[in-house]
Amino acid sequence: MAPYDAMIYGKLAGYAIYLAIGIGFGMALEMSGFGDSRRLAAQFYLTDMRVLKVMFTAIIVAMLLIFVFWSFGWLNFDNVWVNHTIIWPQIVGGLLLGVGFIIGGFCPGTSLVAASTLKIDGIFFVLGVLFGVYLLGETLSIPAMNMFYNAGDYGRLTLPTLFGLGAGPVVVLVIFMALFMFYGAGICEKYFGEKIPWKDISLNPLKHIHPAFAGVLILLALVILVKGEPSLQDRWNMLPAAERQKIENRDVYIHPAELLAVMNNFQLKARILDLRGQSDFNTFNILSSVNEPAETINRHDLIDSLRKEAPNTVIVLVSNDEKAATETYRLLKVNGVQNLYMLEGGINNWIGVFGADKTVAVKKDAVVPGSDSMAYTFTRAYGSTLPLSNPIGDHGEQPDIKYVKKVKLQLKVAKSGGCG
Description:
Blueprint: H1 11-31, H2 37-41, H3 50-71, H4 87-104, H5 108-116, H6 120-139, H7 143-149, H8 159-163, H9 167-193, H10 211-227, H11 232-238, H12 241-248, E1 253-254, H13 256-263, E2 269-274, H14 278-283, E3 290-291, H15 300-307, E4 313-318, H16 323-334, E5 340-343, H17 346-354, E6 361-363, E7 376-378
Parallel strand pairs: 1-5, 2-3, 2-4, 4-5
Antiparallel strand pairs: 6-7
């Protein structure tokens, strides 16, 4: 299942693959004329729009291939690295890059292409880029600069997430936006570049956009729209078998005593998400748990915050039994949340293990198996005020209960990529 790490073939083969891709990318830029600063600067004078045409073509082709493969289950988009949106430094950086592009005629990637062909302006531009990178690294030790560098971090933000739409509608909109831009670019080149009078310029889109090219783009976009995104089960099946087997082997269901130990271990941070309805949560909940009903948990802000938790954070899902917790585990896991566990047997098992005072809670005569309903009747809503919410001794000692430890923290490793 793509994406693949070239290093699975060994370091030498992996580096050779990366080198071949880099050479191919550089050749494509050079053949497109991106090694000539005059052609690149002409973009801003609307006389030569090849930068927009080539780069935007690369973007939409990559987008179409990614989401076609995603729709048919050949690629797991959840594992594709998306650079974080850190809005304020990116706005300022974009402005600086744009000004530098106009003045110098290069962006960082095209300057390397020019330098590789020994163009003097390209070499000096690369030296300037390297000095700028060094200067940024040195200034990040200044608290104010470091704060600004991370200001407005929205994490992995995509257009479907931003607009609350599926990938299909967004892809279709982006394709039509691209075709409109290509159309406008063709007209600009005629008017500003070739100096053709406005009245003599054809407004027929087919004169500025190759019909076969446009047809293929629209066809693929419609395939994505009709096919749709993989279901939760499809995305779950895309995960490595070892990840899926953790549920089957019950490796991620932790005993109530282990959750209690995690809660009271000051080297760890327990983030407990109670997936039950507000009524059950108010009746009784575990100390420091947060009510996040299962039906509303698929929120970008929540999932992103879970992905960004510190490496020593243990995220535990809690429901009355295990049904809602298991379904939510699958959802969060396919969205890249790590160090994720479920409370074995849910709240019902927590109460059964640590024992409820019969003056406040009485076990019901019968509970339908798998209904994920509370197995105890409480005399009133206690929330987390009962000792049962954090049943440790007066001196912080843990109950003497034997259990198999299952919590193993996973380190978050990000593979990032840069721009051309």
